[in-house]
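Record passed on underneath.
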Amino acid sequence: MGAPLFPQHVIARKRDGHELSRDELAAFVRGATDGSWADYQLSAMLMAIFLRGMTPQETAHYTAAMLHSGVVADLSSVKQPRADKHSTGGVGDKVSLHLAPMVAACGVAVPMISGRGLGHTGGTLDKLESIPGFNVNLSLAQYRRQVADIGLCLIGQTAELAPADRKLYALRDVTGTVECIPLICASILSKKLAEGTQVLVADVKYGRGAFMPEKARARELATALVRVAQAMGTPTRAVLTSMEQPLGRAIGNALEVRESIDCLQGHGPADTMEVTFALGEQMLLLAGAAKTAAEARRQLEQSLGNGAAREKFRAMIQAQGGNGAVIENPDLLPQARIRRPVASPANGFVQDVDPMAVAMAVLRLGGGRTNAEAAIDPAVGISDLVKVGEPVEAGAPLAVIHANDEAAAEEARAMLARAIVVGDSLVEPSALLGEMIS
């Protein structure tokens, strides 16, 4: 006979280092969903997991319980193969915005449920909402219909999908239990697998601007994501990517949308496109739309060259209530009143661009959130950011600040002047792409 499923007994077993059963973990998740476990019991359980960890089997059981705490989207009406990507997030990471339509233009549907930013710059939903009229709050029925109709939909998490995750994530945020790989793994996968994707590619970032700065910890998370998702029947690969400097040259919501439009026009920043192609190749390979990485790369490049990816993006914007004319006229996006360059102090080469310092400058401008309820100014941020190793001349701009407040602009300028280091020696930037976990 198994152990009782009373909250205190389940908590005590994990506290004492025992491996929990499928039923015990299901009881925990059910308690978060229906309110039968008090917040203090849920918090105690989260801390016990944080301190004791989980075996791979426990993590799989926990993820399955989280996934089935709500509805799993039925996308059987979608005829194309379905693929999605997840990023653990970083400074200037706008890849989803242009990667999704590129992959959709290659005949693979992309059902993507995304999140908001907290801590520095905005998340994918915040970027999309800077497009006039764009609605990220579709119902599950609207989402299903749009994926079937145009092969592409980017929305926020609905009330029906993985409701236990919303409750437990909020508690993790206030109990110091966020940085726990089994909990992170279950949180990511419960939402991603509930959206109806058939295959998944994860971009797991490491470095100073990443959620997990240490490469070893990022590798551990990537391995857990792949192992658990595949155990649940979803072929998954993870690519480790460096976040030692911001990705691309724009940080800030409308500015990042503008840069993604540049990418779809075929002239995006080299580093942004390097990550985009690496992830897109794996999405097409896993979905069976290409047999080799070279073939996948050709398809993705063709989607840019013939304008098909750009038109997919337009179709998605218009289907979700947005103004598709932003593609030809990005000036329709919100624009800040103040533009202020940050001048280079000397001739030389860019030695360093501290990604978190850049993110904090954007946060000071109003481009990110300090708490979940905070409003974001979609127009503010940084553009024309230099990259490590580039030559610069004294007085030339290292970046351009976009602000709606003079005091904030001046503070951001001082922060960026410290974040960007110019020196005499030529510095090679660190490799952007790390290993792939499959």
Summary: The mean pLDDT is 94. The domain at 335-423 is CATH 3.90.1170.30 (Aldehyde Oxidoreductase; domain 3). Residues 72 and 194 are 4 Å apart (CA to CA).
